Amino acid sequence: MWKLSALLLVASASAVVLPAHREAPELTGQALIDYVNSAQKLWTAGHQVIPKEKITKKLMDVKYLVPHKDEDIVATEVADAIPDSFDARDKWSNCVSINNIRDQSDCGSCWAFAAAEAISDRTCIASNGAVNTLLSSQDLLSCCVGVLSCGNGCEGGYPIQAWKWWVKHGLVTGGSYESQFGCKPYSIAPCGQTVNGVTWPKCPEDTEPTPKCVEACTSNNTYPTGYLQDKHFGATAYGVGKKVEQIQTEILAHGPVEVAFTVYEDFYQYKTGVYVHTAGKSLGGHAVKILGWGVDNGTPYWLVANSWNVNWGEKGYFRIIRGLNECGIEHSAVAGLPDLDLYCKNDIAKPVLITDQLQRTERVANADEQRFYFIAPGGKIKLNTNDERVQFGFSLYWQQYTDAQPVQLNVSLSDIQPTVLERNGMKPALVKADTKVSATILFPVYNYLIQNLRTLIFFDGDSWNSTSLGTGLQLLQGNTQFVSSGSYMTVLPLESSFGQIVFQDYEHTKDIASFQGLKCTLYSRCEDLKLDAGGGPAAFQLYTQDIFSVANILKGIEGTGKLDVYIGGVTVNKTNLISSYSTESKNLPQEFLGTFKTLILTNGTASILMSEFSKSFEETVSLPRKGFIASMEYGSRSTSQDSHSVVTSGIIAKFSISIRDADLSGYATLDMNGYKNNTLVFARSQAPHFTSFSTTMWKLVTLLFLTLLSTVTPTDFLQQRLQTELLINQVNSAQQLWTAGHQDAPKERIMKYLMKAEHVKPHREEDVAQVDVADAIPDHYDVRDHFSQCISVNNIRDQSHCGSCWAVAAAEAISDRTCIASNGVVNTLLSAEDILTCCIGEYYCGDGCEGGYPIQAWKYWVKNGLVTGGSYESQFGCKPYSIAPCGQTVNGVTWPKCPNSDADTPKCVDHCTSNSSYPIPYEKDKHYGATAYAVSRKVDQIQSEILKNGPVEVGFTVYADFYQYKSGVYVHVAGPELGGHAVKLLGWGVDNGTPYWLAANSWNTNWGENGYFRILRGVNECGIESQVVAGIPDLERHN
């Protein structure tokens, strides 16, 4: 009931004072303030002391406003009694952080600020005030960086990843720039305003650069505690449910939460009251802390702390309408719980000393003996020795300079006899046949995510002590089968995997077993499994988190009594704990992308890419001399030094690791010592990973993945090319549905093709028309074959460096439908330029070259009509496209390089603009629509609509791998979300059992399959089936 009353309140205020302003989204400045204050009475807008330009520097890109993954959301039991009003400042007034308003200055660090604020509150609350301090936003901002990690520092970040970073790496103390409180206070000064009598200098023109990560205290004041000893850790990090009562319950139980939402221009002008978006365009994303709720004159609200200093809003706070997911604020709440035990151990744990070859020692306070074990598929191994010092010899071997030479790593440990203490839960599956067992890969239609099959090891026998046949990835890449010598085969899942394995009786050629799936993850144990010949057709299927490798990782070998290690693999003389390469192995990996990734560059700048499950980290490290080797851990920084031939030092969480005196033609050694109470404490792996040799606090991998010759000068282009190579390799190795490759057009151009995420959204119910499903829908259909007489059907356009896809796709489909409905009588190309430039006002389409709403383009056609117009090159019709292609060669014509900025939206003119003499006046050239509507997301309804009336326009989300598409049936495999896009859907089919949609892109004919692409059908891939629009032409109204 209160939702209805709130909406009525807004609506009635608007109706009484001022009718809806057609151009409200475009209002700025005083006009916007006047409109907001006249249109509603919930809140008041006014001029701000902070300059408007500064606000946009505080915001994030909308790409950081992403829904939670299902696995991140923790179900909250709703409290029995939720009060009408609640304010954390009253409940926990003893906590110094609760009332603290910070100032992020001109840096888009809101994601780090809101996290540090809420984490500080929750640490105080959980400890009953025993840990009452301010935790550092600087520590998060500067050190949690990288794609799919926290983000990009001052350009924005993912709130949930900030909380996960707190769990893994901890946060030191740190307050505001003015206070210099704690170990790591904020390093960016306020600007452009006067606060508490202090006038700060004018803000700089550009956004502040992200501060560098340093693992030391940086306060101007003397701080008594060391950086590592000052860490405060989290126990858990999670997303909160979207329901209001779930968010309220979470705050009641544990304290404030962090939320992210879309900021519009009117929010900047907020002074007081309960905010609801009223006017102005979207400016970006923002993250804040919710600390309570209440009701104001019948309007429910959230109480929120901003990070724009106390001059803004209600002394730094604001209220926003509750229960309507206003600006998306209720769909992105994140939270976590502190680990007070881990924090308390800092004061009492005995130190561990890590000494490098130069006898430099680092004291590590937080060492827990039980954490330091090797964990392998065979069990947990504790390394015992009577010696206080144990030497580890790491040998590096480099064959020659080529583009992708592996480094062979062998580690020998003396005076250590490993013993198996316990099984670690990764249990083998036993497969039995009448004669011999064969294993092969099965490719079902929808099983397109075949990844990480390296985590399956096949053994020739009835136990995992048997001879290793190889891994699932070898089975996949070799396009072969494994055959046992007897009637048993054992399969050991180390983690969990995508992919479907079919077991057959090799000689009787019949399928074995009735087991349909096995699920085991890092946090749950795999169940025992026995398969025998008594069942019918079956598959052995495993599911994984997002880990990926493109090399044959394992090769079974026998140990010799010492512990031999290669990228985390260990073998001993009794048991294959992890099968790994020996030093004599010829089959070395060429590339990895998994728990850990290191790139080595022989001169200049190296781009470091690492991933851990669904997280990854990207960093650039400057290496001043030829031959330097970079070694880093996910979520931390590395400092490069110049000494002797090769020096890198990775200061990683708790341990200091160095590689010294390496000659690329010889060997490098690393001596490390770690002990506690005369017992070695050295390594623990969180799970059996083949690509890491790790502890919970550090990871070391010294593998060569790519070598660039010293004659190459590193540039930004080189770094981007390096990332592109990794993405292409990842896509092509992970699946066989489609092929990725290099594109002629520069990668930067794709960002200019795309729309904002806000333009790709579900339809309103009133816009969706129900389509009568056709009696017979063919398996394959292509509009080009059925209406080949229509010149528009085969036409591929080029939107150039303008996000006009919404207009181009609409013009293409409307042209087709007009020709089809008129039986070819009206056979022309209608103008994308007319929609792009003139769709404003009542049927406001959006933001021109920054994106638009497809459904509005079709409604504009119904109301205002469209004139004819073809491509820039053709100058066809009344209003051809006015933005020239750029950055590529098409049909023998080389177009100039694309400019650095997006194209400006051309101005709307009501006359023909073709360079050619077009005989028909603008008003007489109009072609109109009769209806415009959205189509249901059901596959058969979309197909029926195309069969009956012609192509439709669809919107979908674009990821980085889509740009690299060359051919095949696309499905998103890897890479971050880039934005929204609209295209024309003109058919469907089936390719080797995989159903697809056929779509026409607007990136010219050099891209994809001569300008077209195919995308998986039936699973709403990237949202393509939930945003379909169409319409019917009005042939009688044609002038």
TrEMBL record:
Keyword Protease included in the entry's annotation: yes
Coiled coil, from the record: none
SMART domains cross-referenced by the UniProt entry: Pept_C1
The keyword Protease is assigned to this record: yes
Domain Peptidase C1A papain C-terminal intervals: 82-337, 777-1032
An annotated GO BP: proteolysis
Signal peptide: 1-15
InterPro entries found in the cross-reference section: CUB-like_dom, DUF7591, DUF7592, Papain-like_cys_pep_sf, Pept_asp_AS, Pept_cys_AS, Pept_his_AS, Peptidase_C1A_C
Keywords, sorted A to Z: Disulfide bond, Hydrolase, Protease, Signal, Thiol protease, Zymogen
SUPFAM superfamilies: Cysteine proteinases (SSF54001)
One Gene Ontology molecular-function label: cysteine-type peptidase activity
Domain of life: Eukaryota
Protein's recorded name: Peptidase C1A papain C-terminal domain-containing protein
Organism: Caenorhabditis latens
